[in-house]
Amino acid sequence: DQQVKQNSPSLSVQEGRISILNCDYTNSMFDYFLWYKKYPAEGPTFLISISSIKDKNEDGRFTVFLNKSAKHLSLHIVPSQPGDSAVYFCAATTNNNAGNMLTFGGGTRLMVKP
Amino acid sequence: EPEVTQTPSHQVTQMGQEVILRCVPISNHLYFYWYRQILGQKVEFLVSFYNNEISEKSEIFDDQFSVERPDGSNFTLKIRSTKLEDSAMYFCASSPHYGYTFGSGTRLTVV
Prior knowledge:
The complex is a heterodimer of chains A (114) and B (111).
Chain A: E1 4-5, E2 10-14, E3 19-25, E4 32-38, E5 45-51, E6 56-59, E7 62-67, E8 72-77, E9 86-93, E10 103-104, E11 108-113
Parallel strand pairs in A: 2-11
Antiparallel strand pairs in A: 1-3, 3-8, 4-5, 4-9, 6-7, 7-8, 9-10, 9-11
Chain B: E1 5-7, E2 10-13, E3 19-24, E4 31-37, E5 43-50, E6 53-57, E7 65-68, E8 75-79, E9 88-95, E10 101-102, E11 106-110
Parallel strand pairs in B: 2-11
Antiparallel strand pairs in B: 1-3, 3-8, 4-5, 4-9, 5-6, 7-8, 9-10, 9-11
């Protein structure tokens, strides 16, 4: 039951260009979405989030866009840097879940080439 | 910056043995979680813990699994009788509400 899907297992981008990572979800109860970055041998690190009442949230080089009607979100990184090379996971949750269980996508491996 | 600490970083155990994975969450956080990631697969929710009891658990979290907060600082995951398919990275996390902080994980290898 893949409620959160990241259809691109990998993405390669030149340094300085934009990286766009995509995520789709099926559960209409999800109303809060997060992006995590993961390096090998480390736990996921929170990057940015967005509530379903917004369609865009920006933090420095990172911007998350949410299209509720399409059940789609994307993470834009601009400009991309070699240090951004990692696996990126999108995750979703429901606002009224006290335990805030996250449902993760399968991840996209981003490689930023110098 | 506060962090979630997990020990050990790598645990090898024989099938059928009990294993305890340990975590020290961030001290003022109220919610605690265990997730796992089987090699090459998604990060999967196991259990959340709030106010000294399980608040939610997944179908993965069967009777072989248990969690405990024995002393107000540690948060443990016990697997009673390990199976080969329990081999995975196990991540502990804590949060004040939103904004999880994950630990670096324990790699469990069942042989």
